[in-house]
Write a structure and sequence with these properties.
It is a single chain. This protein is an alpha+beta fold and 133 residues long. It folds into 2 domains: 79 residues; 39 residues. The protein is built from 5 helices and 7 strands. A hairpin with a 2-residue loop joins strand 6 and strand 7.
């Protein structure tokens, strides 16, 4: 997924946040910067260190390729288009344990979202150990 924004909107907090998620700067051209990565992002005006009006402009201005952006309740969510499915077989005990942990963490209806988020977190940790992030 590629995220592009005007260079003046790409402050230190934005660069740091994208970098921590494994996004890397791939292009600077005509006053725009483009980052490339694979993980979903959820951010707010406070996290990027700007006011609410500027954040609204930020949300309207950025471009997402290979994903979509959603503005919901003061937050900007950028997520990749998900086309692939993965089937996993679990024992009854494994499924019960997964369901319990998911509910404890607030995933009341969608266990697959919890599973995906856990898998992605594990992948990011492994990438950090290898120095890929």
């Amino acid at each position: 997924m590629k995220i592009s924004m005007p260079e003046e909107m790409c402050n230190e907090a934005v660069r740091k946040g994208l970098s921590e998620l494994g996004y890397r700067l791939v292009r600077r051209q005509n006053g725009w910067v483009t980052f490339e990565g694979v993980f979903s992002i959820r951010t707010t005006a406070d996290r990027v260190g700007i006011g609410l009006r500027e954040f609204a402009r930020f949300c309207r201005t950025i471009r997402v390729e290979g994903g979509r952006k959603i503005r919901r309740k003061g937050a900007l969510i950028i997520e990749p288009v998900r086309k692939r499915k993965l089937k996993v077989r679990l024992s009854g005990d494994e499924y019960d344990a997964l369901t319990k942990v998911a509910k404890d963490r607030g995933y009341t209806r969608n266990i697959s979202s919890f599973f995906r988020d856990s898998l992605i977190s594990s992948l990011m940790i492994r990438m950090e150990w290898r120095g890929a992030i």
